[in-house]
Design brief:
about 25% strand; alpha/beta; ligase activity; Rossmann fold; 3 domains; Long-chain fatty acid--CoA ligase; six-stranded mixed beta sheet; GMP Synthetase, Chain A, domain 3; globular; single chain; ATP-dep_AMP-bd_enzyme; 24 strands
Length: about 475
């Protein structure tokens, strides 16, 4: 077993470097179906053969350790094979989701057509060539707080991750893994969340099931899915749909909420409507999972938290710093941001929060999601929590806009709860009472649903544009 750490320090057993753990899982699965796409069922043996074909094709194309591969792949079996095949040859792998993500001129761009062509070649086992200190993948942040940044994970870091190794699972991950018999995948298998939970599903003996349109709740019903990832906005929509037009979600055992904080009131409502299936996760592209609140832990006093972190956490001046087994080491071609975020082996999350006496981590806002009103810092997250606590509000989002009088002003957008009409004046007064006059929204706009960015996170830039 590889004993090196996230920085790629060498140890014994280099042959165990990533993605050897995944290859071993597929070999152990043998003839069992590991990937299901409508009528197509792919066994562990068949997936291994596909991975060897991709790896062979990449090597024939001149790709080896340290070379860049940019993947334009979707969510089919070939896409999974492409991701793993690129890791087998030791490449620097990045997923290209849109024009915001730069592609290095020296990278080999691999799309679905190229991968399909490699499927006609012999599938002979290949050497796992990753070098622990090399960059294994560049994960691009959503850009929700600015320009997307490329988070660089080394092969040593990915080897230290827990997903493929049940003996390393924290308790929260173990509870989740028990429910991953049929895990819905969508979007792109080169994404961090899809791949991490996908590998966890394989390690738990489950099957990756492709979610073809339409989406929730139809995909859950149609595929008898037991688990999937969902954003806060889509979770709220699913809850509203279930209240009005309930679908048969009896197969569902785990919904992993990601992308943005889930207010306690909305979490309680989701539990009431969907049952004990919600896993409220907290993590970042730079770190992977930091904490997760699981259904057995969701007592009333814990709903405002994100669970007990199974990783190292420090709170410095109200800001959360973490160390995780598989954290990134730096940003791609961005030394200034690297110096600001990766500090002495710790990752500065730029999230505000605290660990209570009960061991639960509670988030209070983002250090950079601020609005300067009358020279006073107003945290958008704090205003959003006050607004979301109103029973008439399902979701709340706050942005800042230049103001001739105050420098900047707070502007709020709220999605009404079912059969409710929020009172903008009352909401403004609630914020002023809780946080002070400078935090009170200059405008409160009712919207049917929040616009989302390609990452699935709320698109605050689109909200700002709506104010013009």
């Amino acid at each position: 077993m590889w004993t090196g750490g996230p920085d790629g320090d060498e140890g014994d057993g280099v042959s165990e470097v990533w993605p050897r753990g995944v290859l071993d899982l597929l070999a152990a699965a043998g003839g069992r179906t590991v990937f299901e796409d409508e009528e197509r069922h792919v066994s562990g043996d068949e997936m291994l053969s596909m991975i060897w074909r991709v790896a062979g094709g990449l090597r024939d194309s001149g790709v080896g350790p340290g070379d860049g591969v940019a993947l334009r792949v979707g969510v089919d079996a070939e896409a999974f094979a492409a991701v793993m095949g690129a890791f087998v040859v030791g490449a620097r792998v990045s997923g290209v989701r849109d024009q915001k993500v730069p592609v290095d001129s020296s990278d080999l761009v691999v799309d679905g057509e190229r991968v399909t062509g490699w499927m006609d070649t012999p599938g002979r086992p290949q050497e796992v060539a990753g070098r622990p200190g090399d960059i294994a993948r560049v994960l691009w942040t959503s850009g929700s707080t600015g320009v997307p940044k490329g988070c660089c994970q080394t092969y040593g870091s990915m080897t230290a991750a827990w997903a493929a190794h049940p003996d390393r699972w924290p308790q929260a991950v173990r509870r989740l893994a028990e429910r991953l018999q049929r895990y819905l995948v969508f979007g792109s298998l080169s994404s961090q969340v899809m791949l991490e939970y996908g590998v966890l599903t394989l390690a738990a003996g489950g099957t990756l099931v492709v979610a073809r349109p339409p989406g929730f709740p139809d995909a859950i019903v149609r595929h008898r899915a037991t688990a999937s990832v969902i954003t806060v906005g889509k979770l709220n929509q699913l809850v509203r749909d279930q209240r009005g037009r309930p679908a048969d979600l009896s197969s569902l055992r785990a919904l992993m909420v990601s992308g943005s904080p889930l207010p306690p009131g909305r979490l309680a409502e989701a539990i009431d409507v969907l049952g004990p299936v919600v896993f409220h996760g907290y993590g970042q592209t730079e770190t992977g999972m930091i904490a997760m609140l699981t259904p057995p832990e969701m007592t009333p006093g814990a709903l405002d938290s994100v669970g007990r972190p199974p990783v190292e956490v420090q709170v410095r001046d109200g800001e959360i710093y973490v160390r995780t087994p598989a954290q990134a080491s730096h940003y791609w071609n961005d030394p200034a941001e690297t110096a600001a975020v990766f500090v002495d082996g710790w990752v500065r999350t730029r999230d505000l929060g605290a660990v209570g006496d009960d061991g639960l981590l509670r988030l209070t806002g983002r250090a950079r999601d601020v609005i300067i009103v009358q020279a006073e810092i107003v945290y958008a997250g704090a205003v959003e929590r006050v607004l979301a606590a109103d029973p008439a509000v399902a979701e709340a989002y706050v942005v800042g806009r230049p103001d001739d009088t105050t420098g900047e002003a707070v502007h709020a957008f709220v999605v009404p709860a079912v059969d409710a009409t929020p009172d903008p004046l009352a909401l403004t007064r609630q914020v002023a009472s809780a946080l002070g006059d400078n935090a009170a929204p200059a405008t409160v706009t009712l919207i049917e649903r929040v616009p989302v960015a390609p990452s699935g996170k709320p698109d605050k830039e689109a909200l700002k544009a709506a104010l013009v």
